[in-house]
Amino acid sequence: MLDFTLPENHICLLSDDGSQTTSTLVESLTERGWKLVVLSYPQSIIAQQSPLPEGVKRVELKELSEAHLQQQLATITENYGPIAAVVHLHPCFQGTKSEGIRFLEAEKDILKQVFFLAKHLKQSLNQAASQGHSCFVSVTRLDGEFGFTGKVNYSPISAGLFGLTKTLNHEFKSVFCRAIDLSPEVNSELSAQYIISELHDPNYHLAEVGYGSQGRTTLIS
After folding, report:
1. Is 178:111 a contact under the CB 8 Å cutoff?
2. Are the beta carbons of 142 and 92 closer than 8 angstroms?
3. Which residues are bridge partners to 95 per DSSP?
């Protein structure tokens, strides 16, 4: 297990997927001494906001433009500290098998925001890495096995996060980057445990893992 702390006065930016997983993960990381700011998407995109522990700040996006996100990131840095870690919890857009493959505009908009996050936090994350440790983690809800089970009608758009995270793993050499696929059946407590476990994985070469009925999995050639 990799033993680390974020650089002094730095924060973790965690996006709210509207589920209990956000609340549980925030509580777990706060208990470990992490300073967090939760980023919420417009309620037209994610209707429900997860409840947060007392003292944890929430910053809401009023719209999904790159300029607005950049402005909010600057406000977060000014008010709460430089961003050393990003944990994106992607909302679950699961459909029924009868619906077929779905390409939802709301999910496309969220995916773009994560790409913009990586773009505008490149300097902050790399600078934090030079001072100790930084990370970029994306969490999806396909099927826990990168979509290969054929048992879940997941939205393929969120799979784009694997490509982004693997690219950052090459481009942000000193930043810990990991894409995690959790089965929709994994509850919030286990989800938080799995995410924290991956945050502390000392293997910087592994870019993607899944947790489902087979346990912890990854891809091999």
Report:
1. no
2. no
3. 153
Q: Is the pLDDT of residue 81 over 90?
A: yes
Please give the model's pTM, rounded to 2 decimal places: 0.93
Amino acid letter for position 78: E
If you write DSSP's letter for every residue of 193-204 in order, what string do you get? HHHHHHHT---T
Query: What is the model's pLDDT at position 100?
Result: 58
182 within 8 A of 13, measured Cβ to Cβ:
no
All domains of the chain, ordered by start, with CATH?
11-217 (3.40.50.720)
**Among candidates 51, 133, 149, 152, which has minimal Cα distance to 92?**
152
The confidence score (pLDDT) of residue 188 equals 96
- Separation between Cα atoms, residue 161 and residue 33, nearest integer Å: 28
Tell me, what amino acid is at 86?
Answer: V
Q: Which residues contact 3 (CB under 8 A, 6 or more apart)?
A: 200
Q: Using one digit for the tens of pLDDT, what is the confidence trace for 22-48?
A: 999 999 999 999 999 999 999 888 988
